[in-house]
Design a protein that fits this description.
Blueprint: H1 2-25, H2 27-30, H3 38-41, H4 62-73, E1 89-94, E2 98-103, E3 112-118, E4 130-133, E5 139-143, E6 150-154, E7 165-166, E8 168-169, E9 177-186, H5 193-206, E10 210-215, H6 220-231, E11 235-239, H7 248-263, E12 267-273, E13 277-281, H8 286-293, E14 298-310, H9 321-327, H10 329-332, E15 335-336, E16 339-348, E17 353-356, E18 361-364, E19 369-372, E20 378-385, E21 402-403, H11 408-426, H12 438-442
Parallel strand pairs: 1-8, 9-10, 9-12, 10-11, 14-19, 14-20
Antiparallel strand pairs: 1-2, 2-5, 3-4, 3-6, 6-7, 12-16, 13-20, 14-16, 15-21, 17-18
């Protein structure tokens, strides 16, 4: 009898699973849409060829659907945080077969929202709305719509919606970057200018070609560095701001989800690390390491952490070359207890990961695996402050430390690059007022620049 009931329960579970999967796989049929008028609604907008695709689902394989159902059933993405906030859009990304919208919400996982679609003039495309499910937390995936250039969300089909956001193009046949980095939100009172420059130049030497920055809080002085790199096309910057205050770690959870979506189909490999961390390979560059580990089934590579004691804050302002050489974090600190797996970080294939967290991937797409790399190949150097921490101040006193500097040749080249960049940004050359044609200021009735200069910064 016990065997009979066990078999019965198994069959019942299988039946329920098949029913749920069938519902999820075909949920576009439960929300039928008349798309015949879509092109007429957008006839006043130019619709490029890439935007003439219509899809009816957010999953393209049986196993993707099954995996998504399983992750939901196991509650693998549930934060239940900041539940007093209204829904605000953080980002919107269009991929080859679907769209992802990232939200500021941290309490809506598995709740239903309508995807809303708008043309180039922010006019809603008639009959295009689609009801989807927030999953993972802070993310909703939506089908593609012909002519959609802006998107938004709402709880009900006819409800008001947040201001539509323009879709960021990620409809690439293959990623245009081999390796990029998602940087945790910048916050706190410590100056960031020299850390940002050293972070970017270090990883450019290791092979990174793009950096995704999310700003929580930063000074105008530090922002000049980001503006310079953004103007050069080295970084993308997203400002995280809204009327609802939240602790820094809550913003980091949102940043993880947004940057995961931002990197999909844009970067083949993407690391998720903080501004005080540096990826360091033992032989060659990161791209060489990734190619050596990649067997087309690897979705995540976890890196051991090398905590390095950091005893002081960075300087407030740029002064000169000597100061830069002294204050560079990699020149100033190298004492460590050795590699550890506690609070390690990961490099991922973004489109092969179902759910990402701060330190590792929570869920991988079907058929892919996660690897742990050896510290002889790659480590994450974490210049970990011994002060101003939320926990474990003076952590270094619990360990025996030894020196572990960067290779001399790498360090020398890095120092040169950091100084050149900081000098070009912060060292101003006084204007020679005598070279300004008189007609330029007299015709505008401006004062003589040799007597009174009207500076712009």
């Amino acid at each position: 009898m016990a065997i009979f009931f066990t078999a019965y329960r198994i069959l019942l579970l299988v039946f329920i699973s098949i029913f749920c999967l069938n519902y999820f796989w075909n949920q576009d049929k439960f929300h039928s849409i008349n798309h015949t008028q879509v092109t007429n609604q957008t006839n006043k907008c130019y619709v490029p060829e890439w935007n003439q695709l219509e899809t009816s689902s957010i999953t393209n394989t049986f196993w993707n659907s099954m995996s998504r159902l399983l992750w939901m059933a196991l509650d693998l993405s549930k934060e239940n945080n900041q539940n007093y906030t209204s829904v605000v859009l953080i980002g919107a990304y269009v991929y080859p077969e679907y769209i992802s919208i990232t939200l500021n919400s941290q309490y809506m996982v598995k709740q239903r929202l309508y995807c809303r679609y708008f043309d180039c003039k922010k006019q809603e495309i008639s009959g295009s709305s689609w009801q989807g499910i927030v999953f993972p937390e802070s993310v909703i995936h939506c089908p593609r719509r012909i002519g959609a250039e802006f998107v938004s969300v709402s709880k009900y089909k006819t409800e008001d919606f947040p201001n539509p956001m323009r879709l960021k193009f990620r409809n690439f046949e293959k990623p245009i970057h081999e390796f990029a980095i998602c940087v945790a939100p910048l916050y706190g009172q410590e100056p960031k200018w020299i850390q940002i420059v050293e972070f970017i130049e270090h990883h450019k030497m290791e092979g990174a070609t793009l950096f995704y920055f999310h700003i929580g809080n930063i000074s105008d002085y530090d922002r000049k560095v980001l503006d310079e790199y953004e103007n050069n096309g080295d970084i993308e910057v997203k400002v995280l701001q809204e009327k609802y205050e939240r602790p820094f770690y809550a913003w980091q959870l949102i940043e993880i989800q947004d940057c995961h979506m931002r990197a999909k189909y844009h970067s083949k490999w993407t690391a998720f690390i903080d501004i005080d961390e540096r990826i360091s390979t033992q032989n060659g560059r990161i791209s060489d390491f990734l190619n050596s580990e990649d067997n087309r089934k690897v979705a995540e590579i976890q890196m051991p952490i090398l905590n390095i004691a950091k005893y002081e804050d960075a300087p407030m302002w740029y002064q000169n070359e000597g100061q830069v050489r002294r204050e560079m974090i990699s020149n100033k600190y190298d004492k460590t207890p050795g590699p550890s797996w506690n609070a390690s970080k990961a490099i991922i294939r973004p489109e092969k990961i179902g759910i990402m967290s701060i330190h590792y991937a929570i869920a991988l797409e079907h058929g892919y695996v996660s690897l742990r790399s050896d510290s002889s190949k790659i480590v994450l150097r974490h210049y970990r402050s011994t002060q101003h921490r939320e926990n474990l101040n003076d952590w270094d006193k619990e360990h025996t430390l030894f020196g572990s500097p960067l290779p001399q040749e790498f360090s020398s080249e890095l120092t040169k690059k950091v100084f050149e960049k900081t000098k070009s940004i912060y060292e101003k050359v006084p204007v020679n007022c005598s070279t300004i044609p008189e007609d330029m200021w007299k015709s505008r009735q401006f004062p003589d620049p040799c007597q009174r200069m009207l500076l712009t910064w």
